[in-house]
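ok so i was messing around last nite and threw this chain in just to see what happens. nothing serious, just curious
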Amino acid sequence: MLGRICITVSALAQLFGPFIADFNETHVLNPRWPPHARFHNGQTMSLGACLGLATLYYTFRPAATAAAAGDSIFTAALFGSLYWVTGLSAILYPGSKGTDPEFGEGFPQFWLFAGQLAVTWVGWWVEGGK
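result:
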């Protein structure tokens, strides 16, 4: 059960985190952002919600066999990883930065994204991942 809790923490962070972090003056309500940037931010927020829900579904769906349970928890870990992997990789695109200039420097999301990714796979491992 501890592994499922770890995966659930990651799922809830993907489900609610983007809305908590982005629905403010640094992102969605930033008057400097053009409409297309807002569109992609909305897309990312919705993607986080969908991935979080899929992660929760596969974390807790009933399984008829041990093999099916293992497949479900692996699938949950995959869904639970995608948002964090894409968040970590976003900094690699040309001209990309972790913050807008008026809000600071660096990549403040790194440790959150890397930590949630690690928590997800620790959860899979604790659940008997092979």
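not much to say yet. Residues 4 and 86 are 22 Å apart (CA to CA).
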